[in-house]
Amino acid sequence: MYLHGRNVLKEILNLKYTLKIKRVIFTDQKNTDTGLMKLRKMTEERYRVDILSPQELYNLSREKKHQGVVIELREFPFFDYREIIEDNKDKKNSLIIFLDQVQDPHNFGAIIRSSVACGADGIIITERASSDVSPAVIKVSSGLAFRIKISKIPNLRNVLKKFQESDYWIYAAGMEGKNYFDESMPERSVFIFGNEGQGVRRLIKESSDEIISIPMRREVDSLNVAASAAVLLFEYSRQMYKKS
Amino acid sequence: MYLHGRNVLKEILNLKYTLKIKRVIFTDQKNTDTGLMKLRKMTEERYRVDILSPQELYNLSREKKHQGVVIELREFPFFDYREIIEDNKDKKNSLIIFLDQVQDPHNFGAIIRSSVACGADGIIITERASSDVSPAVIKVSSGLAFRIKISKIPNLRNVLKKFQESDYWIYAAGMEGKNYFDESMPERSVFIFGNEGQGVRRLIKESSDEIISIPMRREVDSLNVAASAAVLLFEYSRQMYKKS
Q: Which of A25, A50, A73 is the last residue of a domain?
C-alpha cells in the first residue's frame, strides 16, 4: 500500500521497530524546503529511498497533496490479540477498544487518534465488514495507527471472553444503556463501539458486562461513533486521573 | 442548494418553522417503499413537490445515494448572533460554541451533531476561512444543522465581547491551557475551537477568559477538532448534571 505525507513519515521514523517498508519515494523537485531534505536524510539511514517526479508520486499514491513523500508499505502490521492481553496482564489500569464493524474510514482514523491520545493499550477490529487500516485511515489518524497495537480477528465474542478472563470489565455502547454520568469505571475496561447504522450487534451486547450510553436530547438519534468514542475514552481517563 | 436523503427531509418536516424550500423532488421510480410514499404525502402538505427520474435526482444533487429524495433549499437559514444572546439571557445554564475557521466539512458536521446532542444553544462561525453550512455539512450533521441556531459573523472578537457582557465565561481550546480534568465549568460557558492546522488564533485566545486543554500522551500533537469538541461539550453537560 502507498501512504503519503510528511507527518506519516515522521511517525514511521519515530517508531522503535522497523516496518516492512519497500521504499520511501521523494520528489525530485528542485528548491524543496530544508524540512524535506532533512526528512530524506533521516529516511536514508533506515529505508531504501527513491527519487521520482511529483507526477509519479501522484500516480503511485493517487493523492495530490502528497507533500513530496510517498511510502510504499508491504502491509499494515497487525498484532495478535493474545499479545495485547499478555502486554497488559499485570497493569493496574488498562483500556482496550473493540470496534464492531465500524466501516467509515474517517471515523476509524479519528478513533485511532483518540485512542492513542488517551493512552489506550490496543484496538480490536473484526475481519469482516470493518474498514481495514487503509491509507485513508492512516492519514486521518495522523500516522498514529502505528502507535497502538491493532488486532484483526474473526470472532469478536470469543475474544471478548478472553479479555473478560483477563479481568477486564466489558462496556458496550448503546442508547438503551446506563447513563455514563452515573458510572464509576473499573481500572481495567474494554469499550465496544458499533457501526453507524446498527450500533453494536445484539449478540455482542449480550456478551458484554454492561451497556453504557451518552445521554442526549430526545430529537438526536445518536452521536457520530468517533465522537462517542472520544467522550467515553476521555471520561475513562478523567476517572483514572481522579483516582490517582 | 440541493440537499438529499430521507433523514434530512424528516428533520426538515419536524421543524416548527418553515424553511425557504423551493421544492422537494421525489423519484418517479415505481415500487418504492411505503416509507417514501408516506414521506411524500407529509411533504405535499407543506412544500411544493416535483417528481423526477432517479437520474435527474442525481443530476441535481450530484449524489448517488440520494435515497429518492432531493430538496432544493434557497439558502441555509442563519441567525443573528444577537438573537442567540437574547434567547438565552435569562437561562441559568447556557452553552455556546464558537468555531474559529474550522474548514473541514466532516468536522463541522460532526460538531453540529454533538452540539445539538448535548443541548447547546448556538454555534457561531466566522464568515471568512470557515466551512460554510454546505450540503455535505448538513448530511454529516444528519440534518441537525436546522436544530440549532447558527450565526455567521465577520469579527469573532467583537462578538465574543458581547457574550462576555452577557455573563458567559469564554474558554478557548489550546494545548497550552489548563487540564480540563481539574476544571469546574461555569453554568454559562462558551467554548472556542480552532481549525486543525493552527488551532484557535492568538488574538482570539487573548480575548478569552481561559485556555483549556485535553491532556494527552506526549507523542500526540492534538486530537481531531470534532473529537475535542465532543469531549469538552459532554464534560460541560456532565458537570451541569452533577450540579443539578
A: A73
